[in-house]
Amino acid sequence: QVLLVFAEEDEQSHGFRWACDKAGFRCHIARTPQSALECFLDKHHDIIIIDHRHSRYFDAEALCRSIRTTKASENTVIICVVQRHTDREESSILPLIIAGFTRRYIENSSRMACYNELIQLQFGQVQAQFKLRACSSLFTALEKSQEAIEITSEDHVIQYVNPAFETMMGYQIGELTEKELTEVPIYEKKADFLDTINSCIKIGKEWQGMYYAKKKNGDSIQQNVKILPVIGQGGKIRHYVSISRLCNDNNKVEKTCECIQAESQTDAQTCRHKDMRKGSLDVRSTTSRGSDGSSQRRRSSMARVHSMTIEAPITKVINIINAAQESSPMPVAEALDRALEILRTTELYSPQLGTKDEDPHTSDLVGGLMTDGLRRLSGNEYILSAKQTHQVAGSLSSPISLNDIPPRITQAMENEEQWDFDIFELEAATHKRPLVYLGLKIFARFGICEFLNCSESTLRSWLQVIEANYHSSNSYHNSTHSADVLHATAYFLSKERVKQTLDPIDEVAALIAATVHDVGHPGRTNSFLCNAGSELAILYNDTAVLESHHAALAFRLTASDDKCNIFKNMERNEYRTLRQVIIDMVLATEMTKHFEHVNKFVNSINKPLAALEENGNNGDGESIKTVLRSPENRILIKRMLIKCADISNPCRPREQCIEWAGRISEEYFAQTDEERRQGLPVVMPVFDRNTCSIPKSQLSFIDYFIIDMFDAWDAFADLPNLMEHLNNNIKYWKGLDGRNLRVLRPPP
Q1: Is residue 481 part of an annotated ligand binding site?
Q2: Domain-by-domain residue ranges, the chain?
């Protein structure tokens, strides 16, 4: 907002009014000092322009001094318009500065001159005043913070401490400011320890660790301290910010001092992982699952859901707040303080990972699957989509009919409704084209053609097009994997709890999403594509590259020819809804959001259902229906369903589990080989075909990704056979690892 103070209208005031309109500034005009002061106190303008050319009307300097006496003017820019004198020497602007003006403007009624002046003010003094105004908010936050905060100069001269620091240390701010740290007997004087800290912070890295300090009365206290260097003018360290909190009795644990680069704290590629899930279930405790009766096993599942401690920050917040509700006022305050600290993190659902004694297999799996790469570090470019061709309906052979399926294939699909169905037998019988045949049978069983109002021949053509665009050269991400995920999805959809929850459109979306979820997969991870600067990574901005590609390609192929367009007869709004669900489910298979999906499912669905059942509300159908049928929870259930179907290999019968383990390992080996050939960052170095332990990699994957997710899904859908296979496969891989074998199977 701009206030113009001109006693009379003239070309100069008109110029500024025009400039305000052009710049989009709100403009007010005052003719007298009294009206100017009243208008300013009402509107609090950002810029005031006062006419100082004609002293006979009013005293401009006196008006400026009057405005400056008000608190509202602290961040206001005040401009003085003075006459242009060409016949006398330039006068000093010091009296104007003393009166309170920010700068002077030598009269120039040119509209563009006035406009340029306002724009310079906006991006100069006004913007600077906005920042100063924001500082008041920041210092208010510092004053109210329960953490002790100390700010020093680059020479370690104390510039500021907040009230929490005064309370903790027993000093008043006046006793500390402008003094060097060495003058105040606050910190311990262990030279080697201080050298360790200084070696960190002086090179721009933050330091965090345990510190013993002395209060003013001489008492020694233990603090958890974080010291952060602040880079300022010239790219040099200009301040140090120290954040301290007292150590409670229950967390006085010696911590190794760590140097952490401030700008790379969240870089998952530099993290190494230990005790990733901390309180998660011990694998050994799962060996007895599934051996008792169904009701006892269900109670056990519910108990496991309540005991789940997937260490994501949002889960911690829920647990802390729940505990605080039953505590005394002081613990409540401390718990809420901890909750706020956790909420400051950016990744609320990602587990907090250790950094020492890491398991390299887990570390590489997490780095390879849960990040979008290190970005391209060489001149090599991995061109994918430019050279890639897609099969369309017209280029394929005539589709077979469901009634003309050869006997061997029919026999291979006899038990497709059972979990122990052998997808590899079907793969062999169909000469690596299992998706068309299994898709026809499953889609017929669920009445997909009737729902979509499409013919069986259109469905057959669509399945053929989709299968043709899976790369048979991939050892893992091929159409057999798609058929396997489709089978798992259909199996989960047949479970009673799932049937209670989902509508027909959800079932159709789930089966289609499972079919297309990896179509066009190049056999390389998202990290690889980002590092290689592939066209897909550029197209999708290094974000969910493959999953976005799969969804987009699926719809592009479907719309490419009426012969295979299974959506062509749908009503527009129903198609939009179906498309949205399919895309959401395909994107849910991206592993960077794995813990977010699992945590939301546990906290929004598992735990409320478990609470209802434990409170004896099994018969309260309305309460259970409320949990199951809310739109938000149905989305979570569909995401969890396809996620579990996508990585269900460890829950398959042993021989299938072993075969899948070999195939995914080979695909990762091939990626590592190519990364080394192209000079790209090796995102999963442990997957070196000459040194990798497949049993260790499987155990790491199961421990980190599978156990908690399938415990949650089992508690919801009741899957004792899957959990039994999982336990048996864990024993199998542990047996191989215990013998230091790195291969898929023991020697004869």
Answers
A1: yes
A2: 2-141, 145-246, 314-348, 407-738
Known binding residue 477? Answer is yes
Is 518 annotated in a binding site? The answer is yes
| Residues near 194 by beta carbon (within 8 Å), at least 6 away in sequence | 187
Q: Tell me the pLDDT tens digit for each residue of 142-190.
A: 888 888 999 998 888 898 999 998 888 888 888 888 877 766 655 554 4
Give CA–CA dist 455/568, Å, rounded. Answer: 11
Mean pLDDT within 731-746: 95
pLDDT tens, residue by residue, 619-672 = 567 888 888 988 999 999 999 999 999 999 999 999 999 999 999 999 999 999
The single-letter DSSP state of residue 396 is S
The helix/strand/coil state of 153 is: strand
Per-residue pLDDT at 260 exceeds 50? no
Closest by alpha carbon to 146, among 351, 332, 291? 332
CATH architecture under which domain 2-141 falls: 3-Layer(aba) Sandwich (3.40)
Q: What angle do CA 642, 647, 653 make, to 5 degrees?
A: 115
DSSP 248: P
Among 125-129, 406-410, 459-463, 714-718, name the one with the lowest average pLDDT: 125-129
**Is there a binding annotation on residue 478?**
yes
Q: Find the distance separating the first CA and the last CA of the chain, reported in whole Å.
A: 85
> Is 42 marked as binding a ligand?
no
More confident residue, 176 or 379: 176
User: Cβ(486)–Cβ(439) under 8 Å?
Assistant: yes
In the sheet with 27-30, reading across from the earlier edge strand, the strands are 27-30, 2-5, 47-51, 77-82, 103-106
Residue 477 annotated as catalytic: yes
Taking the C-alpha atoms of residue 57 and residue 55, their distance in angstroms, rounded to an integer, is: 5
Query: Average pLDDT over the chain, rounded to whole?
Result: 82
Fold category of 407-738 in CATH: Catalytic domain of cyclic nucleotide phosphodiesterase 4b2b (1.10.1300)
Identify residue 491 by its one-letter amino acid code: Y
51 is in an annotated binding site: no
Cα–Cα distance measured from residue 629 to residue 77, given in angstroms and rounded to the nearest whole number:
57
Q: Which of 210, 215, 18, 38 is nearest to 114 (CA)?
A: 18
480 is in an annotated binding site: yes
Nearby residues of 325 by Cβ (< 8 Å), 6 or more positions away: 332
pLDDT digits (tens, 9 = 90+) for 107-128: 999 999 999 999 999 998 888 8
For residue 620, what pLDDT is reported? 63
Do 244 and 211 contact (CB within 8 A), yes or no?
A: yes
- How would you classify the pairing of strands 77-82 and 103-106? parallel
Under 8 Å between Cβ of 336 and 321: yes
Active-site residue, selected from the candidate residues 45, 477, 521, 594:
477
Q: What is the pLDDT of residue 271?
A: 36
**Topology of 145-246 in CATH?**
Beta-Lactamase (3.30.450)
Query: Which of 104-118, 278-292, 507-521 is the least confident region?
Result: 278-292
266 annotated as belonging to a binding site for a ligand: no
pTM for this model (two decimals) = 0.57
Which DSSP string corresponds to 45-84? -SEEEEE-S-TTT--HHHHHHHHHTSGGGGG-EEEEEE--
Q: Is 170 exposed, middle or buried (0-12, 13-18, 19+ CB in 10 A)?
A: middle
